[in-house]
Amino acid sequence: MDKVRLGIIGVGGMGSGHARQILDGKVPRMELVAVCDVDPSKFKQFEQYPKIKKYTKSEELIRSGKVDAVLIATPHYFHTTIGIDALSNNIHTLVEKPISVTKADALKLIAAYNKAKKKNPDLKFSAMFNQRTDPYYIKMHDLIQKGELGTIRRSNWIITNWFRTEAYYRSGGWRATWAGEGGGVLVNQCPHNIDLYQWLCGVPCAVTAIGGLGKYHDIEVEDECCALFEYENGATGAFITTTGEAPGTNRLEICGDMGKLVLDIGVNGRKLEFIRNEVNAQDFIKKNDSRFGAPQTWTVTFPSVQGNGEQHIGIKKNFTNAILDGVELIAPAEEGIKAVEMANAMQYSLMTHQRVELPMDPKVFANYLKKLIANSKFVKKTDKNASDDLNGSFNNK
After folding, report:
1. How far lies 291's CA from each of 190, 277, 296, 297, 298, in Å?
2. 41-61 pLDDT per residue, tens
3. What domains are defined for the chain?
């Protein structure tokens, strides 16, 4: 095989964006051969490409024999069911974020992959965590992995520049509903941030969250969350997000014994600094005789770290290269369960006013979500082959 024949399931805002990149030749050795959507009007954008097969049912595309791989860009709940179907039929699978709405569903999806992989060890399963291609986060990850920060003691991310209007939420019938989306800002806007948080700092052992359901908008799901994380080694973290604050802030701090990494993202661009201690802070605490002393520091900047990386294109290139050449995946989909579990824990803590320990029993949140859906005044049927338009335009997540 010298090309990957791809089918995209769900060709709304996200799916059509992926299609354009492939059709424009930005993903070498990947060919778009099929698309699927419950709304045939979405196929108009492919009229000039008569060789692309059109389907209104995902199972028909998956079993067509026309594709080697699929990219799933449907509403969130169907990432699980369609993903299981694709993997069970030996189809390489790339799924949009989040990989599932609940940890329980994520476990089912991963189990299907592990079962399929026993028959085909070369089967690839990747997630669209495109922020892992960003050079700023890559540099932070590299410094942490090399031990430059020492032991992480504190981390916090204020990510409140996800401002959304009432018009945004009214633009799709299943937006910001328990039945259609499974949550709000934590499920829609923040999966990338949560994935990056755990990628950099690890998964906490406990979560305590406060916030609001429909605090700023006429919606039933969370549009604000302020969460505190606890880690096994005593480290703490904070994750603060909302779609109701303007102007918003995007600032990530990770503090260790040997200094502090600060990534500030504002209207004037991005700035990454490593404010480095000359000596280990914990050693200084124990050994220095000064009552008010502190370790001397110097600031390291990274002028060579620029741009946003290849983002969606980079993940699709990596997926292609993994299939054809066996290269390592940037974002193995199995890792997506970590962000899903953290989001579930934050949602559950926020709504029940409880401290939630991780790992979390997957049945707890799944059953709680079923009750929320049953009592929802916004219950609507969502077709599994519908487009994932949750994020608006392709470049405006």
Report:
1. 42, 18, 15, 18, 22
2. 999 999 999 999 999 999 999
3. 4-130+311-332 (3.40.50.720), 132-309+338-374 (3.30.360.10)
